[in-house]
Write a structure and sequence with these properties.
By secondary structure, the protein is an alpha/beta fold. The chain folds into 3 domains: 61 residues, Orthogonal Bundle (Arc Repressor Mutant, subunit A); 64 residues, no CATH class; 95 residues, no CATH class. Helices cover 36% and strands 20% of the residues. It contains 8 helices and 8 strands; from the N terminus they run H-H-H-H-H-H-E-E-H-H-E-E-E-E-E-E. Helix 1 runs antiparallel to helix 2. The longest helix is centred in the middle third of the chain and has 17 residues. It is elongated, with a radius of gyration of 32 Å. The two termini are 52 Å apart. The model has no long low-confidence stretch (mean pLDDT 80). InterPro entries: CenT-Element_Derived (IPR050863), Homeodomain-like_sf (IPR009057), HTH_Psq (IPR007889). Pfam families: HTH_psq (PF05225). This is HTH psq-type domain-containing protein.
Length: 252
């Protein structure tokens, strides 16, 4: 496994010693001494001020520059906001691909790198994603919701239903996945209801509920994931419940 190269301390230590002596004993400026002995001015200045102790081993070159880390953090938050959040393993694979493009091959990016990356970017955190189909994600757009209520208001006016709640019904379905599996994904810190857009074809049981504005419910309608219906599935259910089946348990 390759290790990150170290590009620091490319000068002989004797040059550093002579440069410090030239400044402290001979009165040369830091700039002139650095140029004379081939040492970066900032490094020489830090050594003279005691910011860096003699014999300190330099750390490895960072995998990503500060600018690249900022871009990555913004990218991960944006992915989460649009419904396609990334898992930690996907982030590590992306970082590995980036540093390989710089010519450093066979590098293993550990979870420890991720932890340090998060400590430097406190705006990131891990959340459990809620699977959400693309059609539902599009329906949560503010313009779509506003248009729905505009149409609903026009419909109630046209049919004189504003003061007749027993004739106003609303129904909605909820899916109960048969193989739920939500992963931890990267999101912005403090984000709520993180969704992950998925396909429409996963098997589940669907329950359709309906009630009127006066508070009177209708019996639920349950759709099972099967081709043929088994009467044993009705044992212990709410009286009056309706049943159906579809290949994947969705309303088709």
């Amino acid at each position: 496994m390759a290790t990150r190269p170290c590009t620091y301390s490319t000068w002989p230590e004797i040059s550093m010693t002579n440069a410090i002596k030239a400044v402290e004993e001979e009165g040369l400026t830091v700039r002139l001494a650095a140029e004379l002995y081939g040492i970066p001015k900032s490094t020489l200045y830090d050594r003279i001020r005691g910011n860096v102790q003699h014999g300190t081993k330099p750390g490895p070159v960072p995998y990503l520059t500060k600018e690249e880390e900022v871009i990555l953090a913004k990218f991960l938050i944006k992915c989460s906001q649009i419904g396609f959040p990334r898992t930690v393993s996907e982030v590590l694979a992306l970082v590995k691909q980036t540093i390989q493009s710089k010519g450093l091959s066979d590098v293993s990016i550990s979870y420890g790198w991720w932890q340090k990356f998060c400590s430097r970017h406190s705006e990131l955190s891990l959340r459990t994603a809620v699977p959400l189909s693309l059609s539902r994600a599009m329906a949560t757009d503010n313009s779509v919701i506003q248009k729905y209520f505009d149409i609903l208001e026009d419909t109630l006016k046209e049919n004189s239903l504003f003061n007749n709640p027993t004739r106003i019904f609303n129904c909605d379905e909820t899916g109960l996945p048969l193989n739920p599996k939500s992963l931890k994904v990267v999101s912005g810190r403090g984000a709520k209801n993180v969704s992950q857009i998925t396909g429409e074809g996963k098997s589940q049981i669907t329950v359709l509920a309906c009630t009127c504005a006066a508070g009177v419910p209708l019996p639920p309608f349950v759709i099972f994931d099967r081709k043929t219906f088994n009467d044993q599935l009705m044992v212990g259910e709410i009286p009056g419940t309706l049943y159906g089946s579809s290949p994947n348990g969705w309303i088709s």
